[in-house]
Each structure stands twice: as structure tokens, then as C-alpha cells.
Specification:
mainly beta; two-stranded antiparallel ribbon; 1 helix; GcrA
Amino acid sequence: MPETEIPEPSSRDRTTLVKLRERQCRYVVSDGGSEAVFCGGRTKEGSSWCPWHRQLVYTKPPSGGAKAGRGFVLPRSG
């Protein structure tokens, strides 16, 4: 089944921590500076990130017995 392309969130949604609201993406997009800037794009229920940033944060574990934990791929031991 082909994967659907996820659109990149608009930069118009970007916001600061004090203005961040429920169901807004918490992915930090600022390049430093005095205040963190968050994506602010719309999130799905139960997610901290919009679909665009979620695909960057989570990766599918490779086949072959790698252990996965909390969304991160851990290398095989031994």
C-alpha cells in the first residue's frame, strides 16, 4: 500500500510556549535565541506532534529482530 504524502505545516502556526494551546504541535523549530518557538500545527488526539513532525520523530524498526522501545529503534545486542 503506498504511503500518503503528509503536507508540511504552515509557518504561520508557529508559536511560543506561553501561547501554545491544546492540540498544537510541540516540535521546537527555533534555531536558538532567547525563546523557543514551536511548530504549532494541528495534532491528532493523543499526539504531541503534527503528522509532519511525527514522521520525523518516529521511525519504523527495521525487520530482522531489532528491539524497539518507546518509538526509538535500539541496536541488537551481541
